[in-house]
Amino acid sequence: MGTSTTGRGMTRALRVITRSAAVALLLSLLAACGGRSVEAYCETFYGEGQELRQQWIDAGNTEDPFAAMGTIFSAPRDLAAFFDRLEKVAPDDIQPDVAQLRDAFQQQADSMGDTAAGMFSNPLGTALGSLAAGMSTSGASQRVDAYTLENCGPPPTN
What we know:
Number of domains: 2
Largest sheet: none
Distance between the termini: 72 Å
Helix content: over 70%
Number of helices: 6
Radius of gyration: 25 Å
Number of strands: 0
Low-confidence stretches: 20-32
Structural class: mainly alpha
Order of helices and strands: HHHHHH
Strand content: under 5%
Oligomer: single chain
């Protein structure tokens, strides 16, 4: 009788261990699906990025200059939203640079009205401000470009 009690205890312990392992595996799989990973980063960068690129190509090919201008002026806001989604899936080693680009495009989108008004009242100051903003993100932009090419390969050709 002592052996069967020990056998049942071993069986129960084995079931607990098996269930715990299954739960741990499931949780790690769920985290990988929705979390930060190179695969999610590449899919977002080339998937959603290609959609934005196509919008800008289409705007350049349109006969309607107002539609093209609308696309151009919405670009900073679109890029801020794109980099926000990319930042959520970016692996830890590139996430700070993606966040810096997101923040820069958001700041640019937020100041679009000020920039447009400044072009008439202070064109040199506005141009220098835009140049400084571009220079402040050039390092992050270069690192994101290099990371993307190294980890995701070149952009799709179609």
